Amino acid sequence: MNRSAQAAVIGAGTATVVTVVVMLTLGTHRVAVQAPSVIKQSSSEANIQPSNASPVVIKKHFIMMPEAPVAGESTDKHGLPIQPAVPAAAPALPPVLVKYGPLTFSPLVRQVIPAVVNIAITEHSASSGKERVPPQIKGTPLEKRYHDRMKQRQEEMIGAGSGFIVDPSGIIVTNRHVVGGADKVEVSLSNGREMPARLLGSDELTDIAVIKVDSAQPLPHVTWGNSRQTEIGDWILVAGNPFGFGSSVTAGIVSAVGRDLGIGSLDDFIQLDAPINPGNSGGPAFNMRGQVIAVNAAIVTPAGGSVGIGFGIPSEIVAPIVAEIEATGHAEHGWLGITLDDGETDIGIASVDNGGPGQKSGLRRGDLVKKVDDISVTSARMLLRCIAAAKPGMTLNFVVQRSGKNLTLPVHIGPRPMDADN
């Protein structure tokens, strides 16, 4: 044993050791004071113990003394601090409504993109004959030959758009303004295959056209979805041929439904925020099942490109028009020959065409239209859409208010004239 240890053992034989131990225990903060214990050792007990001897265990007795309470702290009758109450659980959060979005659109793209086509159109316009004569031949015999040649010359005007195949036989849907007036229509598939197409028919009121290509093998095609089930906030995928660059896709959501752009009686556009650019016209907008719920038709563009405001024609309008054009080559819409006054509370008839279907059915100027086939009329636009969507020859039951009395009139729908206003 070293000298320091020896001194400690020898000194312990006659000294009184008092040890104060401060113990901080979690939650109680008590001070433990060790009671003084006198250890008397004889000189013989101070002998050096062998290293393998059992240690001497000295039992210590502690007296628990309460700590003085902190100012403002509550204590019980024993002077112990009172634990604060456990706070109530936070209120439950509302359920997550959108748990996840698509991590990738690639499976959807692979399924639908083979049925999306690029459309190139060619128009021929005759020369106006007012071309500037080159100064080298002006006043020479060649000037007449130059004019004759320019009169025979035709200038090709090329445009581009989009479409999609709805039948494996080669039926393609697009916009009327894409192919209207075209002398030549060329269709190219996503795999690069090119085919000439012919126009089956178009509808000016809805801006829908149907073209057809001939193929020995069935072509990939897509199906119609139910646009009535489309809600604001739903994901959509738009495909087309922007700026003639070829097949491409963009994604976004449905921003609004029932948009009226003042283009025609059947205006009921779906507003989309997916980028739609020139050249996308006639292309499809898909739901997440790969079904067509709209046909891209118009954009708001201050600078010629997409600003996130595009419009599609709902499938509930397009599908029956396409079927009718495929069957008959044209689409018919209902017409009554009446002018409406859209008041704040009532929808009145401002005028009735002489000899028109409305007059023949008993409608008069000043009638207030309340219902059509038991459906309340809420706006003039709604009534015009209802009439235009009806087929010629159909009968609609009008409930009108005349001189304070309600009358029910069976109104016979007539065909819409070619020169009728939208």
Give the class-level CATH name of the largest domain. Answer: Mainly Beta
- Quote the average pLDDT: 78
- What would you report as the Rg, rounded to the nearest angstrom? 45 Å
Which structural category do the helix and sheet elements fall into?
Answer: alpha+beta
Q: What name does the CATH topology of the largest domain carry? A: Thrombin, subunit H
Percent of residues in beta strands? 25-35%
Sheet having the most strands:
6 strands, antiparallel, barrel
What is the share of helical residues?
10-25%
CATH superfamily of the largest domain: Trypsin-like serine proteases
Beta strands, count: 24
Number of structurally distinct domains:
4
Number of helices: 7
Shape: extended
CATH architecture of the largest domain: Beta Barrel
Poorly predicted parts: 1-63
Order of the strands making up the biggest sheet:
5-6-7-10-9-8
Q: Give the terminus-to-terminus CA distance.
A: 116 Å
